[in-house]
Amino acid sequence: MLTVRCITKIRRTLPTTFTIITSESNNNNNSNPFIHSAATAATTTVHGGCGDHELRAKDVVISFKDWFASRNNALLDRIFDILGGGGGLDIGGGGAAASDAAFPFRNSADLALSQLGLRLSEAFVLEVLNYGKDVLSCLKFFDWAGRQPGFYHTRATFNAIFKILSRAKLMSLMLDFLENYMKQRYVHKVRFYDTLVMGYAVAGKPEVALQLFGRMRFQGLDLDGFAYHVLLNALVEENCFDAVDVVANQIEIRGFKSEVTHSILVKNFCKKNQLGEAESYLRGLMSAGNGLSGHCVSVFVDALCKGNQFEKAGKLLEEFRQSGMVDVEHAYGVWIRDLVQAGKIDGALEFLQSKKSLEGYVPELFRYNILICRLLKENRLEEVCDLLIEMKEHRISPDEVTMNTALCFFCKAGMVDVALELYKSRSEFGLSPSSMAYNYLINTLCGDGSIDEAYCVLKNSVNQGYFPGRKTFSILADALCREGKFDKMKELVVVALERNFMPSDSTYDKFISALCRARRVEDGYLIHGELNRLNKVASKNTYINMIHGFNKSNRGDIAARLLIEMQEKGHNPIRKLFRTVIRCLCDLENSEKQFLKLLEMQLSHHEPTCQVYNFFIDGAGHAGKPELAREVFEIMVRSGIEPNLSSDILMLQSYIKSGKISDALNFFRDLSKRRKIGKKLYNTMIVGLCKANKPDIALEILREMRENKVIPSLECYEELVKLLCSNKKYNMVVNLLDDVMKDGRHISSFMGNVLLLHSLKSQDLYRAWVHSRDVQNETSSLRMLHQLIGAFSSRRMEQDVKDLEEVIEQCFPLDIYTYNMLLRKLSMNQMDHACEFLNRICWKGYEPNRWTYDILVHGFFKQGRTTEAKRWVEEMFRKGFDPTERTKLFM
């Protein structure tokens, strides 16, 4: 909505040649006479194949390009293009060559500038210096102009270059400039000492300026009015208040006193925090009928605002306006600026609108800029839009600040296509994007998914001498990693390091991790090496990603090295990470040697503990190397560390997982000689034997366990039920269920679901139950389970599904797997009811999974209802699921 509102506001200012191409044009009668766009734009019509948004964006681009071009001074741009090309620089005037000591770069662009045929004058040189885009270019032009026949620098041009150097805080360069100037006295027509006094004054060296002034007076020379005021202002700025009174007295004696003097003296009172005296001085000037400039009032208003006396400043400003003796427009601008800087943006806007409507006041360009920048910072985009339109309507020629804030506005307002097009056309109107504009543009392009465009903008910004801020760099790096543009990301990192820019740790971590996930782990490792050399510590997650990457590349040696390194950096790896590294090592040649080397490195870097040894026993067990696990176990014992219960369990598991059942049994019997066999060890044996498909041995261990008065865990019963059902030993399953009940246990969801699944497959479980049980003497729980198995074994659904659901609830807790069993039962011959039952599953709060949908698809295909089956297949795909191989046979 914001974008639409902003575009609508902007388009109201467009000429009718633009607005006739959209449906909104009939509401637009206010074309902007300032905009005189190219006629080619008028030929763009709706029939051109562009969408309405594209047309509107194009209109906005053309409108703003025309506005930006209005400040275009082709001659000045050409001058600074030439100056920006490099070359030497000298200072001087009147055609003499000065020494290269201060500026060791004489201008190689002399010929190109001379060919422009420039008519040099004080006004033109001041215009060029004021337009200047950088200090060095201004210095080059000043030097070149001073060496042209017939032109001599004036006090004003010298003062202009001094101010440029001062604002840039290039004091050492400025002092070199002045020193070199002193050596070239004979080449200047402008008053020599005046220039030196002004230069040192502006350079922040008032004591030197005063010494030169004293030397002048000793020689019978004196400053002119211009130089006197430059010196007086510098003394005030540097708080040389005693000297201020002396120089001010000299100005008055020589008849140089003017509105400029008054402004400087008001500033002097304000700098000394003598606001009362400043006010009395102003009122005295006004009552005496002396000239009172708006600048003089501005200085006092600014001082009051800096002292947080806004109310008084506002009243005095209005009083001076009503007097009719002062042009207060300049003071208005200062008042607006101070309000904005104090965070009183609403007051500034209200004041502006009031003065605009009542007095026709139009702020200067830089006052608009400060308002727009603050509003942009506060995301008040509609008001930014209003001010930009207002500037266009008042034909205020924008500067680079305006253009850069406009770019930022379009980015923030969601019109990145407009911002990008203006950016691409920057050479047409001499725009040099600021670092803020670059950051906004890159960030917005990344958010818009235009990663390649964002990267191109970044490269251009680097060529222009800007490097993005840390946040922008991180956003672009994230986007490049996310899109898999690793070569560009690698180039970005190289550029950053070349400029001594250190991205955040998280940026590097994401890059390395992304490289590892993309199987470019070697590149990630190289970046990691660079970080190590810079003493940057990678995150734990980065180490984990690199280790997994090298494991996948079958480079367990490097993975092992990284495992040790990450611990040296303060990260503690979990057992699972050790396990993956050890498994990879065990796949290499000389696996035993590599394994023991890692163990040795681990023990040398960290104090040997039972946990460390357990990690290696676990890893060897999962790698199918029980002999290595046993070797670690023996090393631990020889080291004087008593194996704990976890050590024994891991050792048992390593034998069983490797199919070394006899070794596992022997180890288990040996354990009974040195510790009491408890529930955990028994459970480990039974569960492990079940997973190894050894039901007879598992049942034997179970009987022993019960004889020793140790109650088996529910997991033991679950694994046994699952295994016995898989082996169709249903009689044993029924007896086992009886044991579960005798132990006071309830049937778990897992066991219940296994029983339902096998009941659906055949009636064997039900028959075994009937033959092996005295049904009349069954407990109520077993009787209910018996009925449930019978219902599921039946070919037809003889009970209502809700009744069956209630029966299950009395036997064991239902889960989604249980509901899938019920759905499968229904799908055998009642597909319509099955679809209804799916709604019930969702109503119960369960999330249908792949098997839920597959049951329905399979059922429809099996009953020949192909159209409905395909519809459910599409639904599966929408949910991100694929049919099972069993169902695909029907497709």
Automatic annotation (TrEMBL):
Spell out the InterPro entries in the cross-references: Mito_RNA-Proc/Resp, PPR_rpt, TPR-like_helical_dom_sf
What does the similarity note say? Answer: Belongs to the PPR family. P subfamily.
Q: How is this protein named in the record?
A: Pentacotripeptide-repeat region of PRORP domain-containing protein
Pfam families reported in the protein's UniProt record: PPR (PF01535), PPR_1 (PF12854), PPR_2 (PF13041)
Q: Does the keyword Repeat apply?
A: yes
What organism is recorded for this protein? Camellia sinensis
Keyword Repeat attached: yes
Q: Which UniProt keywords apply?
A: Repeat
What Gene Ontology molecular function terms does this protein carry? mRNA binding
PPR repeats sit at 189-223, 364-398, 399-433, 434-468, 469-503, 539-573, 609-643, 678-712, 849-883
